[in-house]
Amino acid sequence: MTANIFVIRKRSHKQPKKLIVYVDIKSPGLSNILGEVLKDIRTVSLDADRPAIERDLLYHYLDELRDRQKRLHSQGVTFDDAILHLSKLIQHLEETYAPVVEQFSTPYVAKFVTCSYYNFDLT
Predict the structure, then answer these.
(1) How far apart are CA 31 and CA 10, in angstroms?
(2) Which of 16, 57, 58, 85 has the greatest count of CB atoms below 10 A from its CB?
């Protein structure tokens, strides 16, 4: 029987009627890496019995996770379980958010977002 690296869990909250997706971290090595990357985030506690992080939050730190992966690879740490687990997490985030990234990379949407961002109402 193989152990889980992480588990995706969906939870529905009553008040905002919103579905929030959590990533339950099962790998101690991955938990250590995430602890280093997310050390300044107060809402993340990886010291708990069942550490869980909102998947949307992890996506916001995807570039930092990729940087950590590259840094560990450059140090020659390539066959460590934690590195493999980090790679799987990055792959999951990339696959999950690919439709969103693709949607915002279209020229029309990019132009709309840019124009909306700089639209100032001086009245």
Answers:
(1) 20
(2) 58
